[in-house]
Amino acid sequence: MGKLLYGTAYDGKVRFSAIDSKDLVMEARERHKLSYLPSVVLGRLITGAALTVPWLGEGETITFIISGDGPAGNVTAQASSEGTVRGYISNTSFELKPNSFGKFDVKGAVGKGDLTVVRDIGLKTPYTSKVPLISGEIAEDIAYYYTKSEQIPSAFAIGVLMDQHGIEEAGGVAVQILDRTISSEVLDSLERNFTHLSITTLMKEKSMEDILTYLLATNDILYETMDVVFKCNCSKEKALQSLNVLSLDDLVHLIGEGGAEVTCNWCSSKYYFSKEEVENILHIKQSSRES
Ligand SMILES: [Zn+2]
Q1: Cα-atom radius of gyration of the chain, to the nearest Å?
Q2: How far, in Å, from the CA of 12 to the mean position of ligand 1?
Q3: How far is the CA of 25 from the centre of ligand 1 (A)?
Q4: Per-residue confidence band for 285, with pLDDT thresholds at 50, 70 and 90
Q5: Which helix (H) or strand (E) is 74 found in, with range?
Q6: How far does the centroid of ligand 1 lie from the alpha carbon of residue 272, in Å?
Q7: Which segments of the chain does DSSP mark as H helices, in order?
Q8: How far apart are CA 133 and CA 144, in angstroms?
Q9: What tens digit of pLDDT does each residue of 218-260 get?
Q10: Is the pLDDT score of 135 beyond 90?
Q11: Picking from 24-33, 79-88, 100-109, 281-290, which range would have the lowest pLDDT averaged per residue?
């Protein structure tokens, strides 16, 4: 569970959110059995998605898909207005040499490519938008999406600190400018405070409230808190749908193997189907074909 703080400052001209996402990143790492660098890459995207939770409409989900040419492959994270996140990475096990700052080379892992954002309110066709990756470090890329595609000037700072023992710290802060009449002094200080910001270093020393008052350069902030959890909405019924689309030959093959195992991409939960259950699917398919 991650504790999310969100609210406004400067008479509502600025909105912000901040999260300690250590538990969420640890859960993603354990579920998908990720090695170090994939944990950091997916952890950053999941943290970024979590930061947007308070800005979603009721019942809305937002999905961030990073498609780069680096070894990470596709990296996907989704958040819902109910305060859930989930996500996965194509390549769960790879490492690169540290970058020139001695840090995990997230940019190298992601490579060049695009960030696709899908906003779904469950009624109409989801709204999809694609922007090029401008950094590959993820926080800047999400900020660029909001600034460019939604015309909301934004800054994100996200960090996942990891050593051989596991995730040490993980968290993020996001700020958005809702009213452009805000003074240039405030804008300058926000920009200055977000430049080269290491959120995980700050988290070791300060509470999230103190980090926010420092970053926003004001004590006058109004905020609320909510819990964000790693939660998937998969089920055996949904897993069954993935068997239903298989060909008759594939189903016969699975029956020969004694049954089927379906793994959820999002959360790595496994669903087992006995030989008899697969035979049932096959029979239903055969009879629907004959009718
Ligand atoms: Zn799942």
Answers
A1: 21
A2: 37
A3: 16
A4: confident
A5: strand 74-80
A6: 14
A7: 22-32, 36-51, 106-110, 139-149, 184-194, 199-205, 208-216, 236-244, 248-256, 275-290
A8: 8
A9: 989 999 999 999 999 999 999 999 999 999 999 999 999 999 9
A10: yes
A11: 281-290
From ligand 1's centre to the CA of 231, what distance in Å? 8
Centroid of ligand 1 to alpha carbon of 236 (angstroms): 10
CA dist 242 and 263 (Å) reads 10
Q: What is the pTM of this model?
A: 0.94
Domains and CATH numbers, the chain: 2-230 (3.55.30.10), 236-290 (3.90.1280.10)
Structure tokens at 3: 């504790």
Taking the centre of ligand 1 as the mean of its atom positions, its distance from the CA of residue 29, in whole angstroms, is 14
Calculate how far, in angstroms, residue 86's C-alpha sits from the geometric centre of ligand 1.
8
Rounded CA separation 165/152 (Å): 38
- Pair 16, 53: CB distance under 8 Å: no
Distance 270 CA to ligand 1 centre (A): 8
- The Cα–Cα gap between 133 and 147 comes to 13
Separation of CA 56 and ligand 1 centre (Å)? 21
Q: Which two tokens stand for residue 204?
A: 């070791």
